[in-house]
Each structure stands twice: as C-alpha cells, then as structure tokens.
Amino acid sequence: MAGGHYPFRGVVCFLSTIFVFTIVVLNWQSSSPNLPEANHPVIYGKAWEKAVKKSCKVRPGGRHVVLVTGAAGFVGFHVSQALKRRGDGLIGLDNFNDYYPVTLKRARAALLEKEGVMVINADLNDRKLLEALFKLVKFTHVMNLAAQAGVRYAVHKPMTYVHSNVAGFVSLLEECKNANPKPAVVYASSSSVYGLNTKVPFSEEDATDHPASLYAATKKANEMLAHTYNHIWGLSLTGLRFFTVYGPWGRPDMAYFSFTRNIVENKPISIFQGPGGVELSRDFTYIDDVVKGCLASIDTAEQSLQGPPRGNPPPPFRIFNLGNTNPVPVSEFVSILEKHLKMKAIRNYVDMPATGDVPITHANVSRARDELGYEPVTELYTGLKHFVKWYKKFFLTEEFKGTIDLGNYKPF
C-alpha cells in the first residue's frame, strides 16, 4: 500500500477520532460556523443545472471533471484556475465563512467566474446540494480543499472545526461512496499532523498520534476517516500534507500576509520564540509548487472501486508531503520581506502561545517526488517577491485599492 503507515500507537489517535466524531453527532445542528445568510439558499432549476453543466464541460486538452470544495479559499482558488486553464471541467463549492474577511474570498470567486468556473455558495454539510450535484454530474475526481483553517483560532471556536473539517468531510465521503461512478478523492491534510514530533525532516511514515492543536487533530481524523472509506468502500483516497503555503491571493491570517500589512502600516509584528528563546522555523512552500502537486495527485490517482468491493483489493491509500524541504527561521523570512518592501519591520519577540504552534516544520518529499514527480522549485526570496508585488497592486495602488477590503481584521 503506497502510503499511510499507521503504527500500533495510532490506536490512540483512532480513539480520539471516535471521540471527535461523537461530538459531531451530538452537536450536528448547533455546530455551524458563522455563515452569511445569502450562502445558504441554492436555487435549483433548469437555469442552475445548465450553469453547472457548462462549468463542468471538458475542453480540448482536459480529461477530468472535478468537484473542488473550498474553491474560494487560497489553495482552492489556484487549483481551480489551473484545472480550468488546462481544459478540465469543474464546479466550485465554498461556504464563504467569515474566519477572515469574506471580500477576499468573493474577489477570488469573481475571478473564477470570469474564467468560466461556477462557484456555489454552500456548506459541505448540505447533503441535499451534494446529492443534486452528484446526480447531475458524473465527477471523475473530488478535490476537497474545504476546511476551517488556522491553528490558534481553534482554541476559541472548536466546534467550527468539527463542523467543517470532520462532519463536512464525512458528508462528502458518504456522497462519494454512493455515487455512480465513484470519483477518486484528493483531500487536504496538513503538516500540523506531525505535531510534537522532534525528528526532522517529517516523513509520511512517522507517527502522527501527538497532535499539538485541535486543528491538527481534525486533520488527523480526516486521514483516518479516509483510510476507513478506502478500506470498506474501495474509494481512491489521497491525502496531501501542506507545509505553510504562501503566495498571491493568500490568507490574511498567515504571517507573510499579516507581517506585510503591519510593516507597510508601520505597526509592530510579533515573532514567536519557543523554549529557551529558540526561534520558529517554517518550510514555506510557494503556491505554484503546491498546485502542481495537487494536479499530479489527481492525474495519478487510481479509480475507485465501482460497486460493492466483494473482496477486491481497494486502490492504494496515499499520503504525500507537499513542502519546500528548506525550513527558514521567521526572522530571516522577515528580512526578505523588508528587502522587497524597502521598509523596516518593528520586531517584537514574544513567547510562543500555548495554542498549538510547533517549533519547526520540515518536509521530506521523497515519496511525492517518486510517485507524483513533485519538485518544488520556488525559493522563498522569489516567492515573497511575487506576493509583495501582488499585495502592492491590490492594496497600495489607486487602480485596485479598495477591491479587497480587510477592514480592521486582525488575525488570532
């Protein structure tokens, strides 16, 4: 089996998964995050069906028909663009929650609409919608990038994570295993599943049963639920452990975005330090490299078993690290930002809060390189240059200033 090594101590995490899933069942109706009311109604009918089918039409050069969840999110937006531009048919789905300003998500969705990608405002737990989509479209693949993001926010809104990351994922898997044909599923996991591991670089075979945050626990739960649906129902499932993805159209809660904003506004930035004053290091991975890994995961995924398994072996259950393989201390990362912005940061070094951050992330991508042809090529200096150029265009030039209104948003 090409991935997903689960040692005996993984039983601990399995029990944790059962506990989390029990919470889901008990809180199914009350755990919904704050969603704009306009995102709930979906107007079914001939016009809606026609628009869905048009978005899902495969063009010359394309091969797949893909449901992309979280399409208005950072990674989902870029993956959707790449799929459409190479000719694949797709439909996007996003709940446009207010974890960070919705204006940014709507701006991404508007660009996708211009390129012919329909983005439906709906939640993964809307089973009626999922049933309608899978009845209308024979998806070859599902790219599940929908999730409640953020490590520190989970301390304040734990049920939002259970609702989106666990219940939503189960809802989607249920629809996939009932579909005809069953699609292959690629889903976003996270480097955070490595939790308190001290061995670096992180490899897919490493134990992941010591999560340091609730967010990480939900992502580990995703992997174990995926394994279950692969084993019982023969679904083709591939998990992607992303390592600190950054780039244009990124998330304003991430350090590269919030630091840039504060430096430009001459506000201080907080740089976390671990025990003994050890500075945090991150394996910053540029969005274009991650997108290539996502598309390669789709292209290499084996088909799901069609019909009951009846003793047939399931397709490989795969997990891949998608990182840059080169962790950089946060201070060095800030120095690069200063060069591109031609401004100095006001640096405040503070103790790392007890909210789930880890001292270092560092990806071993040997498996992804061998099986996906994944090869990260963007150095941090170059990637941040691209991001700063985008930031200046949309936040500092008169032509685009105001297109994306972040208001008084401050990340957790």
Tell me what the structure shows.
Helix content is 39%, strand content 13%. The protein is of the alpha/beta class. The protein has a domain at 46-245 and 286-324 and 361-377: 3-Layer(aba) Sandwich (Rossmann fold). The strands form four sheets. Strands 3-2-1-4-5-6-11 form a seven-stranded parallel β-sheet, with helices on both faces. Strands 7-10 form a two-stranded parallel sheet. A two-stranded parallel sheet has the order 8-13. Strand 5, helix 7 and strand 6 form a beta-alpha-beta unit. The longest helix is centred in the middle third of the chain and has 21 residues, at 158-178. Residues 1-15 and 17-41 have low confidence and may be disordered.
Keyword list:
412 residues, alpha/beta, Rossmann fold, seven-stranded parallel beta sheet, two-stranded parallel sheet, 12 helices, 39% helix, globular, disordered N terminus, UDP-glucuronate 4-epimerase activity, membrane, transmembrane, UDP-glucuronate 4-epimerase, NAD
Summarize it.
With 412 residues, the protein is α/β, with parallel strands linked by helices. Helices cover 39% and strands 13% of the residues.
